[in-house]
Model the fold of this input.
Amino acid sequence: MRIAMTATEITNETRAPRSEAEGEPKVAYLLKAFARTSETFITNEIFLLESLGLPLRVYSMKRLENQKLHGNALRIRTNARYLPEAESLGESSFLSWLRETLPRFAGAHAQLFAKRPFAWLASFAECIGMCVAYREPGRRMPRKVFFKEFLQAGAVAHDIVANAPHIRHIHAHFCHGATTVAMFAARMSGRGFSFTAHAKDIYLKELNPGKLLRRKLRRARFSVTCTGANQHHLDQFRPEKAQLHTIYHGLDLSLFTPESAPACTEVPLLLSVGRIVEKKGFTDLVDACSILHRRGYRFQCRIVGGDGDASTAVRARIATHRLEGVVKMCPPVTQEELKRIYRDASLFVLPCQVMDNGDRDGIPNVLVEAMAMRLPVISTSISGIPELIKHEHNGLLVTQRHPVQLAEAMARLLDDKRLAARLSQAARSTVTESFDARRNTGRLLRLFEEAVR
Done:
């Protein structure tokens, strides 16, 4: 009986098909959801690793619908393998959930147990121990999510053992759910694993309760994070011998190439891009636009991104300030479409903030894109952003949650064309020096090559 999993190709006629016979993949990528529109840094990484000669096998824990696919997502040649659907644990009792979900995974686990009984039992015992040890504060019931992740891990481990024995290593993105699955799957299949830690997954304690993140750092062959600020935070509890590397995501510089002459528009376009969530600070941006509008500045502001938890608040703030004709909210677009919008913009603004629960961005990819397109940028001095933007050198930094200061910075760049030009030139230089995705992905490739030996 084969595992309940299909090798499903993204439906698009322009996508280049690939057979794994072209090269035996040595590394498996394990993702929460493959080709998510907002996670260009992951799809770009997979595409570049393939182009650098590393065949991959991609496992996705969820199947996404109605996603806009960037060009590099369509160029990825490997076919994603989707795990059996696992219902949300919050919608029913655990026993009801188990009756619904277990049959989808039972065959894979039974065959895996037959092949590797001791590894399966050790992983199952670890799962039960984690369910008990990492109970939610004030609750006596075990934390059930680890059992769900154990079931998903068994599906991955079985496919590797039964169908892809050449895979020697598993890599996960985000250090909570996907990495827990990777840790279990690695133990059951006898492989090594690694993971990339990003931002929210590092700082929200409920995603890695107790000392779980320390356990993952200790067990992984290596770990990667995308900012020096993250590395500093993780170093505070990282086991001494655990390998942790800072590798910036970077950008495909051949795709993001500015025009020889900047766009000249009668009414300046202020651009911001990102999912409409509170940590992006879009309500502060609308407040700053209101200040500029009252001062008599003529401009248009466009916020491009998918709806999130702050969409209602941002729309309400636009209505409160009567800025419907000035500030526009636009749906998400592909990188190729976004590149054309960058070329029409006069400056790029992203007033990120750290949330009370610790949630934050690392280095937003759209900031790197805007700087590569030689746009003057304004952001906030939080998290990894000061590693990208040096105040007064290649952009401007303001205090988070400070609309007045943000408005002053925007006015300054609208008024001083020479300053804006100087900052934008330095911005492009910064990206080419430190955020070249091909060069940075080469560092990750060398870690994989060492891991699979």
